[in-house]
Amino acid sequence: MGALRSLTIEQQIGLLFLGLFGVLGLVSLVGFGRTLREASPEQQELHERFKRELRAVWLGAVLFWVAWVSGAVVATILFGVISFLAFREFITLTQTRRADHRSLLLAFFLVLPLQFVLAGSRHFDLFTVFIPVYVFFAIPVLSAFGNDPQRFLERTAKIQWGIMVCIYGMSHAPALLLIDLPRYASRGAFLVFYLVVVVASAQIVQEFASRKLRRRPVARAISRSFSWRAWLIGSLSAGLVGALLYWATPFKPIPALVMGFIAGATGCLGEFVMKALKRDAGVRSWGGKASVTGAVGLLDRVAPLCFAAPVFFHAVRWYFGL
Amino acid sequence: MKLPEAAGLLLAFVARLITGAQGHWYGCPPKAEQRIYFANHQSHFDWVLIWAALPGDLRAVTRPIAARDYWTSSRLKHWITREVFNAVYVSRQRTDDQDPLEPLVEVLKSGDSLVIFPEGTRGNKGDPQPFKSGLYHLAEQFPGVQLIPAWIDNVQRVMPKGEVVPVPILCSVTFGAPLQLQPGEDKRAFLERAREAVVALRSVR
Asked: Is there a domain that residue B61 lies in?
């Protein structure tokens, strides 16, 4: 691992993407090899699901690469577009009324671009407080001028929460890409990569563990698979993966383990919260046939990241005393 | 590419960005047959949504209906409806010597498809209002043209009456199975049946 640290930044990053696309190519190849065999209908269905997930991962990886190659501005815009699509999906499934029209316009066309401009221009102090302080104040004011008291608190709370998750959470991804840490200049891509890998492995291991363990679920009405032990196993393996990746990060091995644990744990809990939200909205999945409007299911995929990114971002900032 | 064509592509892109404009072809495939699409009407955005949900090659032969007094009142409105959408203008004021359906008959004779909103006006919410009789007369005169019901979902949230800027919310257009005018069917019964066909698409997921 030490040899890797002595390479130049460009070489390290090249290696990172080479490794990423190499692994993905290998997985795709194996997946393709499996289609050549006979399969029962259930296996076929499982394979279809696998193919869909794999396609999403490929898309994510390519986007990540494009974001890195084309620099800060394009990366910020890219994450901004993803945030827009996720927030669109969130609002579609939320009950809003006519009087919220202006607040929604404010959220979509002013708050969202401004938040990403703040991230892109590295104004991290204003970036951190802009939504929790100023937007939190502006949204209910505009909604109140809409002159409709019916379920007012519920409506504004939902809009505010959607902004927090889809815009505020997501905007921490480009912020990680752009953050300047001591002796770690212009290597933010590793931090985003680290975060994504750690959160993804936490989710996969947790899913696997909950299937194997079959523990009693903590909250049956919300998720039939979530149990504390599976969650702990998922988060711990996220920490382990994080420690293995320490050479790519500004952390030493032990802090890398802790950071991985924190990111994995928050990501899994974020996914759990999203499940509660889905149950509330009465859909099983944001995407697929169950949805009212044929939403694409993007929110499902980015939600764990949206929850983990702000926690991780601030953990990093505190760790370095920025 | 000419300017109207480019403007059309841009508009379709914006509509897709804001609403998703998903077309669900539930009861019939998107085909280049002569058709009359009829749908519920809640917003000025309805037509753009149906138009964006259609495949590109069907857009050129599918035409909307525009109220002459409103959509020719400014040069921009007139240009968009005439050049981009190739709209059929109808007068809302009824004169004694002219049949208000005459422009539509001309279009159907020339082989193009039509999109009509038989409620006649934009409804506020909930169930569509009773249908106007134009649909019946067209079905009577053109038995060979397919009548396709369509349900537009969620669009009233995108742009409520009186607002100008649309909010990005996902919408969908569900197209149902073709309807036929039965021989000797009563006008009112047919219009009610057509309305029910539109409403029934609401629960199709």
From this structure: yes
